Amino acid sequence: MFRYLFVIFLILFSFLLPKVVAKTEITLSVDNYPPYIDGRQSNKGKLAKIVTDIFKLQGYNVKYKFMSWPETEIAITDGNSFSFMWYKSEKRTKNWIFSDPITSLKASFLSRKTTKLKLERLDQLRRYAIGITEGYSYGDHFDAYKPQLKLVQSISDYEGIKKLLAGETDLLLIEPFVAESLLKDWFSDEVKDTKLSNVNYLSNQPIYLVCSLQYASCAHLMQKFNFALRKLKAKNALNLE
Questions:
Q1: What protein family does this chain belong to (predicted)?
Q2: Is there a contact between 149 and 129 (Cβ–Cβ < 8 Å)?
Q3: What topology does CATH give the domain 21-104+207-234?
Q4: What confidence category does residue 155 fall into, taking pLDDT thresholds of 50, 70 and 90?
Q5: What is the CATH superfamily name and number for domain 107-197?
């Protein structure tokens, strides 16, 4: 009798076990944003490694799902997944929970060397066609000035570079390490014809891990993520190199 009950227990446990294991796995919906997020790399990119390590410190494995950023935004809002590399906006805070800032990034201007530019002041930008990427923020000062500028929006930084090189824009706002990575990988023949310019009116933008308010485990898991993130920052162990 005892043996019979033990066999039944093992069978029931075998059905329950996958559900228990599933609770220790986090899904991260992201798009490629090399070198920070890169599906070609074993660690999925410099920032992805940090996010993965933080979840592992809390006992969670991660699974990456790669899709476009617009698809990612839908997946976060409608599904049970996390994402990162996002900027905070008033619209997003109505639907998402944001982590503590993971790090911050600052955009630069990418241009063709043959284009003569004056970039010392924000008002000087009005004469140029400026490439921006959908959903990105470039600091409150620049964002407030957008209505006075000629902006050409793209769905990705890659598309923005294509438009710049084709002469459709004069400038592209882009994070410098992302620009270098994309140029090296996809536009190696044109690298020598481009330059990056830094200006003081583009501010550092904090980036966050996010999940939906509709995701039942979102708030609890975000607290655990923030706890581990703060510990790493206190030890100066948050390294993007």
A1: Belongs to the bacterial solute-binding protein 3 family.
A2: no
A3: D-Maltodextrin-Binding Protein; domain 2 (3.40.190)
A4: confident
A5: Periplasmic binding protein-like II (3.40.190.10)
Paired sense of beta strands 205-212 and 82-86, if any: antiparallel
123: buried, middle or exposed (CB in 10 Å: 19+, 13-18, 0-12)?
exposed
Q: How many residues does the chain have?
A: 241
- pLDDT the model gives residue 70: 84
Express each pLDDT in 157-170 by its tens digit. Answer: 999 999 999 999 99
Rounded Cα gap, residues 130 and 190, in angstroms: 19
d(CA 117, CA 204): 23
Sign of CA dihedral 31, 34, 36, 40: positive
Within the chain, all domains assigned CATH 3.40.190.10 are found at 21-104+207-234, 107-197
The three-state DSSP-derived secondary structure of 150-193 is EEEEECCHHHHHHHHHCCCCCEEEECHHHHHHHHHHHCCCCHHH
The tokens describing 84, both together, are 């990162």
